Amino acid sequence: MELPFVTVDVFTATRFRGNPLAIVTIPASGPKPTREQKQTIAREFNLSESVFVHDVADTANKTRHIDIFVPFAEVPFAGHPTVGTAVSLLDQGVTTLVTKAGPILLQQTGPRIAQASIPHNIHLHAATVCDLALAPSQLPANPQICDLELAAPIFSVVNGVSFVLVELPSLDLLADVQLSVTHFPVDKLLDEGWRNGFLGRYYYVRTGSRQDESGQPVVSLRTRMIAPTFEDPATGAAACCLSSFLSSVKDKQDTPSRRYELTQGVEMGKESNIVVEVTMKDSQIDEVRLAGTAVQVMQGHITV
């Protein structure tokens, strides 16, 4: 079995920046890889995520089912694979991606730019990192970062995708954030019914605010996403989580929509540009839309 693939760098128009993604196409006819084979392929790519797109025989069909894998597991949804896959399918006019988390509607908002309506079920948790009573060696060495992290809110954008949202007052402090091997246990930090999935740290600095030509508020942020032992150059789910938190909790949105422009990965030399738009209805979040571009880097075939 031979499966065509491409790799793209997501949330950037410049090769070798952004967040890499492998996209493998499963032809509409012929043998199909098993779940175990998909996992083996994802492990071989060893990227943060790999996507498998189920092609269709009818070109009039504008819906594609996708499977998203990290190197050692399948996940129901992730932000940068959704946007990267959406951009790769723009020429085919695809309007819906069906993930294990449900269908995601797509829209082209500019040249090689795709916007995806993201599933959301937001929740602010009661605990903070301070409740863990960690040893000093498990905490950031910088005392200012340490204090802010201990008191930072913990927020979920969907059940299973959560972040400690640490606001920092300067880009100098953001640059001083270090990788950490400290694991944040979901069973101790997340509320009952939410104790599963991924919990990372998302550090952010406000860098500006303005109104666009239509009068829509625009908030600019610099961010870093740190998980145990690694840093991610672009994290769509974290960007959606932070934007939802700011609109619904910290800076309650009083306009129908607000756009967030997030720059991530600068400290890694892999600058990424992420756009999130949050719309409100009856004082509740109605839609969360994640947008970005991607550029192809490699292509080839996988022999299974």
From TrEMBL:
The active site is at E49. It holds the Pfam family PhzC-PhzF. One of its GO terms (molecular function) is isomerase activity. GO terms for cellular component: cytoplasm. Keywords: Isomerase. The keyword Plastid does not apply. This is Putative isomerase. It comes from Tolypocladium ophioglossoides (strain CBS 100239) (Snaketongue truffleclub). The lineage of its organism: Eukaryota, Fungi, Dikarya, Ascomycota, Pezizomycotina.
